[in-house]
Specification:
The complex is a heterotrimer of chains A (279), B (270) and C (386).
Chain A (H helix, E strand, L loop, with lengths): L1 H5 L9 E5 L3 H8 L6 E7 L2 E8 L3 E8 L5 E4 L4 E6 H8 L13 E6 L6 E7 L2 E7 L1 E2 L14 E8 H10 L6 E6 L6 E7 L2 E7 L6 E6 L3 E6 H4 L2 H7 E9 L4 E8 L5 E8 L9
Antiparallel strand pairs in A: 1-5, 1-7, 2-3, 2-6, 3-4, 4-19, 6-10, 7-8, 8-9, 11-15, 11-17, 12-13, 12-16, 13-14, 17-18, 18-19
Chain B lengths: L5 H14 L3 E5 L3 E6 L9 E7 H4 L15 E5 L1 H9 L6 E8 L3 E9 L7 E8 L1 E2 L18 E4 L3 H14 L2 E6 L5 E6 L3 E7 L19 E6 H9 L7 E7 L3 E7 L3 E8 L3
Antiparallel strand pairs in B: 1-2, 1-4, 2-3, 3-16, 4-8, 5-6, 6-7, 9-14, 10-11, 10-13, 11-12, 14-15, 15-16
Helix pairs in contact in B: 1-3, 4-5
Chain C lengths: L1 E5 L1 H13 L5 E7 L2 E7 L5 E7 L6 E3 L8 E4 H7 L3 H7 E9 L4 E8 L3 E8 L1 E2 L14 E5 L1 H8 L8 E6 L3 E6 L4 H4 L4 E7 L5 E3 L5 E5 H14 L3 E5 L6 E6 L3 E7 L5 H7 L1 H7 L108
Antiparallel strand pairs in C: 1-5, 1-7, 2-3, 2-6, 3-4, 4-19, 6-10, 7-8, 8-9, 11-15, 11-17, 12-13, 12-16, 13-14, 17-18, 18-19
Classes of the chains: A alpha+beta (279), B alpha+beta (270), C alpha+beta (386).
């Protein structure tokens, strides 16, 4: 690959170097968390975590494990920087980003450290694009303190079945209400719009329901504007795990399979809007 | 004019409709020209598109004002013409006529196939304005600029993708090329700098290949939207696509199909 | 009230709602013994559409005896129920429509594959019955065509185009775009399509004239006709009289009633007297409390061609003769002179219906009635009976 020969000498000073044969693996999953421009990149030996937040009550994370990359080299234990995600996506898709037969965009991503831009080398069919995207001081991401020991209810659904519901959501409703219960209606999505309300009930015995673990009835409302962006993650995922903890904080975990069949994750956290909890 | 191979001709007209709202259609006994003169009102962009009539029509009759001035110049809306031609793509035959109706019109008449025995006839009267002879001198073929570099363009689809993305990031783009077959597209903003490097593109045999350093880059900064407009309309891959650059002055794009040639001029911004 | 729709009929119902949404913002729902009526009318009351789904359309249809219920809902909210027509067919097994009068809710429940249950509780407002008064049978011109023939016709016109003009002769139908004023005409592309009678399943033209009506609503009906494959029958009469587009099969009937343009100028110039003369005494509806009703009506008198475009039609612009039906249509020439007439200066000042009937005798056999226009904003609407 021409890219690797091109910039080897520069590697010495870079704290982060990551190579990817197919830039789509990265751009696709980043698209799933674009709801705000600013994204925090956190690189550790495990891989890359990209975080976007909205209103301090929603957080979207994309996880790309180190072994998705053909090369993933870190000089420090942890490298963190903030970057404009929209700009990054335009750069990653500079050659179109749509899959054409046998053609993919190779990517080499380098970061020299605080104050330096993130440098991308993209190559497709012998044409090379170099992008230098300015980085800034990372903000401290919110810790939602969501721990699996506090999880009250959990269901795992095939994404297929939720896609329909999310595409039909009544956007005149300010909130999306999620009910999870050991008894009927089991798993319910509700909206309360200008012209009435709507309930989508998923049976616990449905072949779309992979796991159903609900301990007590919980009904929480989440701002529609905060949850709507998660539709993008839903669209590219094959499974979704919906969990709530005792405080009503929602965790949506999406399992995403890329072009090469490798698995990545996207996670959304969202604080409840107001509680209408029932025993 | 009869039996237009509509797919192709509407492709040409569609391309032009992406470039300009109105242009001049000049008819001569052998050619059709779509012309946009590079006036300030259209941002200095100029266009010259030339079609050989006998490749498009089975039958072609035209009569200008006199044998001396045997041509007709019309102001047309390529968008209107393109829509008219699009709806008759599957026609059995198509006629285009200059008619005098409520106003001067190019009338596109087509015979459409139907399920029944009779065929269906559709006509589109596209209003045009006949341009008087005293204004004709504006519509002469532009002189090939004395360019610093002439280079073949990369595949237009890839070029379009790159320009589209750069358009999202910036309003202006630097296009530079040399006589060594290299071309770069660059943008720079507060947030990001992007440069795309094409190589081994080749240089057409004409032009200043003998003089100077082949590595020397000629460059021009242009309004990205104008370049994008040009690329958006390209529906067919041309047999040849070239770009001439007059350093810091103008970008001259040329597309050659078998029977159509299109020239497009984008002025450099200061 | 219990209505259950299953299988492919769910999609038919959904399509009907979508095509009604091309007409107005509200859906009028009226469960009747004859079936479920869904209707809509546009804001200027110049277009009305109605579907009646017979009890046999449903796998279950029961309404309480003597149920006297009518309501209207935001059509957008009902569209949401049938959002994706493509998946509707694949995923929905059963659609249940129920009524909760206590809560003023109309409930649509979709039983979908994989045990998914979608419940839409839509709030409604009580309404009077919405019913246009029209009489298809008295229309002079009737033709029927497969939806494809008409779809292939309208495709030649840009979606932004508002009105088309149909010109009918014994053997042919011309369709052209209607362009309002002279200034526009010199810029707009004029498109004309000529269809021979044998493209139609049925073509019975008694009156040679030109009728101008809205394309958007026409496309709305075609949407439905195309997806159900039902032929479209068109009933036309004089310019200014509504045109009726119908689709029917054994379990459903759809009627779109669209106002047509009458020639204002013509009317003002030469028809004052005739106008008054033709004003009929008010009928029964007239005696109802009109404020409660949405009444508009037909006001056309002008037998002249509704548009100014084909120059040869100018020949018809003579004072109306009572026997105008005998007038003939002359083939138009390709190029012609400027039309001496001004085109109509206001669109569809003749609005036609929206009259409210008591729920029972549903279809009036009476033709267009003479009433004051309540729903129209034009000043001088008066009516003409057929």
């Amino acid at each position: 690959m021409p890219l690797s020969t091109q910039s080897q000498s520069e590697d010495v000073q870079d704290v982060l170097v990551a190579n990817l044969d197919n830039a789509r693996s990265l751009s696709n999953i980043l698209k799933a968390i674009t709801c705000k421009d600013h994204a925090i990149f956190t690189a550790t030996a495990n891989g890359l975590k990209v975080t976007v937040e909205d209103c301090k009550c929603m957080q979207a994370n994309a996880f790309i494990q180190a072994d998705i990359f053909q090369e993933f080299t870190l000089k420090d234990d942890i490298v963190v920087f903030q970057i404009n995600l929209t700009v990054l996506l335009d750069c990653l898709n500079i050659f179109g980003g749509t899959p054409a037969a046998g053609v993919s965009t190779a990517l080499r991503m380098c970061y020299r450290g605080y104050g330096y831009p993130l440098t991308l080398f993209l190559e497709e069919g012998g044409v090379v694009t170099v992008c230098k995207i300015n980085t800034s001081e990372p903000e401290e991401p919110i810790d939602f303190e969501f721990s699996s020991s506090n999880v009250t209810n959990k269901v795992i659904l095939l994404s297929e079945s939720l896609k329909e519901a999310f595409s039909e959501l009544d956007l005149t409703s300010e909130v999306l209400e999620i009910t999870m219960s050991p008894s009927q209606p089991y798993f319910r999505l509700s909206t309360f719009g200008n012209s009435g309300n709507a309930h989508y009930d998923y049976s616990k015995d449905s072949d779309m329901m992979e796991l159903f673990q609900c301990n007590r009835t919980q009904t929480n409302r989440y701002k529609m504007s905060l949850l709507k962006p998660s539709t993008k993650a839903l669209a590219i995922s094959c499974k979704v795990s919906v969990r709530t903890d005792s405080r009503g904080v929602l965790s949506l975990q999406y399992l995403v399979r890329n072009d090469d069949g490798q698995i990545c994750f996207v996670e959304y956290f969202c604080c409840p809007d107001e509680e209408v909890e029932e025993g | 004019m009869k039996n237009v191979p509509c797919l192709l001709s509407s492709g040409v007209v569609t391309t032009i409709s992406k470039l300009t709202k109105t242009c001049v259609l000049r008819l001569t006994p052998d050619n059709l020209f779509f012309i946009l003169s590079g006036k300030v009102t259209n941002g200095g962009v100029g266009m010259w598109c030339e079609l050989l009539q006998n490749n498009f029509f089975d039958e072609y009759q035209m009569e200008g004002v006199s044998s001396e001035f045997n041509q007709i110049c019309l102001e047309v809306s390529p968008e209107n013409l393109s829509r008219a031609l699009r709806t008759v793509q599957c026609a059995k035959s198509v006629k285009i006529k200059l008619t005098k109706k409520h106003c001067a019109c190019l009338t596109v008449a087509a015979e459409l196939p139907t399920l029944s025995s009779a065929s269906r006839v559709v006509t589109h009267d596209v209003p045009v304005e006949v341009i008087p002879r005293r204004l004709w001198q504006e519509f002469k073929e532009p002189v090939m600029p004395d360019f610093d570099v002439s280079i073949y363009l990369p595949p237009l689809k890839m070029l379009k993708n790159v320009v589209d993305r750069m358009k999202n990031l910036s309003n202006f783009l630097v296009i530079e090329a040399n006589l060594n077959g290299e071309m770069n597209l660059k943008i720079q903003t507060d947030l990001v700098s992007v440069s795309t490097h094409f190589k081994d593109l080749g240089n057409p045999p004409w032009g200043p290949s003998q003089r100077g350093d082949p590595e020397l880059l000629a460059e021009a900064t242009v309004d990205i939207r104008k370049l994008q407009q040009f690329l958006v309309g390209q529906q067919v891959n041309p047999t040849k696509a070239m770009c001439n650059i007059v350093h810091q002055n103008v970008v001259h794009l040329i597309l050659l199909h078998e029977d159509v040639s299109l020239q497009y001029f984008i002025p450099a911004v200061a | 009230m219990q209505c259950v729709v299953t299988g492919g009929n769910v999609k038919v119902l959904g399509k009907a709602v979508h095509s009604l949404s091309r007409i107005g913002d509200e859906l009028y729902v009226e469960p009747q013994e004859e079936g479920l009526a869904l209707r809509s009318v546009n804001s200027s009351r110049s277009a009305y559409a109605s579907f009646l789904f017979a009890p046999l359309f449903f796998s279950r249809y029961s309404i309480p005896r003597g149920l006297n219920f009518r309501c209207k809902l935001a059509i957008k909210s009902v569209q949401t129920v049938f959002r994706s027509l493509a998946t509707l067919e694949k995923t929905v097994e059963k659609c249940h429509i129920g009524l909760d009068e206590q809560k003023d809710r109309l409930t649509f429940t979709l039983h979908c594959k994989h045990g998914l249950l979608k419940t839409h509780n839509l709030s409604y407002q009580d309404s009077e019955s919405l019913e246009a008064v029209f009489d298809k049978d008295s229309c002079a011109n009737v033709f029927r065509a497969q939806p494809r023939v008409l779809v292939d016709t309208v495709v030649h016109f840009p979606t932004s185009l508002e009105e088309v003009t149909l010109t009918l002769s014994d053997e042919r139908m011309w369709v052209r775009n209607h362009v309002e004023d002279e200034a526009e005409r010199s810029k707009a592309v004029l498109t004309e399509l000529c269809l021979a009678a044998d493209e139609f399943d049925h073509f019975d033209i008694k009156l040679h004239n030109s009728i101008t009506f809205c394309l958007k609503e026409f496309r709305g009906l075609l949407l439905f006709a195309e997806s159900t494959g039902l032929p479209v029958t068109m009933y036309l009469d004089e310019p200014g009289s509504p045109v009726v587009l119908s689709v029917t099969d054994s379990v459903l009937e759809g009627n779109f009633v669209l106002a047509t343009l009458s020639d204002d100028h013509y009317l003002r110039q030469s028809n004052r007297g005739a106008d008054a003369e033709q004003t009929r005494p008010p009928d029964d509806f007239m005696n109802d409390d009109m404020d409660a009703y949405l009444i508009a009506m037909d006001s056309s008198v002008a037998p002249g061609p509704s548009t100014a475009d084909p120059p040869s039609l100018a020949a018809f612009r003579k004072p109306p003769a009572p026997n105008y039906r005998t007038r003939t249509y002359s083939e138009e020439e390709e190029d012609g002179e400027e039309d001496p007439e001004r085109p109509p200066d206001k669109k569809f000042r003749s609005l036609f219906f929206g009259s409210v009937l008591p729920p029972s005798p549903r279809r009036s056999s009476q033709p267009f009635t003479t009433q004051e226009v309540l729903a129209s904003d034009s000043e001088e609407d008066e009516a003409e009976a057929d």
